[in-house]
Amino acid sequence: MTDQNPFDAMMKMGQDWAKAMNPALESFTPKGFETLFPTMPKDMMEAFMGKGISPDGLDAKTRLLLTLAALTILGAQAEAQIRMTVRHLIEAGATKQEVAETIAQMGMFGGVPAMTKAMELANDVLEKDET
């Protein structure tokens, strides 16, 4: 029997395999990765995830606000997704107030650190949108 944690051994095997397949992955960082994905136009969002798929259901802006709420609870592990969702929310017609209130309400479910991080990420996107 070995003293090594099986999870650590599995992770090391995966990392060694990734390095062997593509050495550049060792220095890959997902920061800014979301900028590779364009912002969908409002009409397209509505057609694909709003009234277009469910005429009596939620509109795209409401669905995106719910998505932002869930991502806020996940915390720092969803940074790129939070930035992309805020970007799409602005395009879908959400106000800065609606974005801020959605994030703030999640403080009681995800905790203040998760709420604070999501608010920082959202502010970064909103400030870029102003310029």
Protein topology:
Layout: H1 6-21, H2 42-49, H3 60-74, H4 79-91, H5 96-105, H6 107-110, H7 112-130
Helix pairs in contact: 3-4, 3-5, 3-7, 4-7, 5-7
Describe this protein with a few key phrases:
131 residues, mainly alpha, 7 helices
Explain what this protein looks like in three dimensions.
- There is one protein chain.
- With 131 residues, this protein is mostly helical.
- Helices cover 65% and strands 0% of the residues.
- It is built from seven helices and no strands.
- Helix 4 packs across helix 7.
- The longest helix has 19 residues.
- It is globular.
- The termini are far apart.
Residue share in helix: 55-70%
Q: What structural class do the secondary elements suggest?
A: mainly alpha
Uncertain segments: none
Strand tally, please? 0
Strand content: under 5%
Biggest sheet record: none
Distance between the termini: 60 Å
Report Rg. 19 Å
Number of helices: 7
C-alpha geometry = globular
Describe what is shown at a glance:
With 131 residues, the protein is an all-alpha fold.
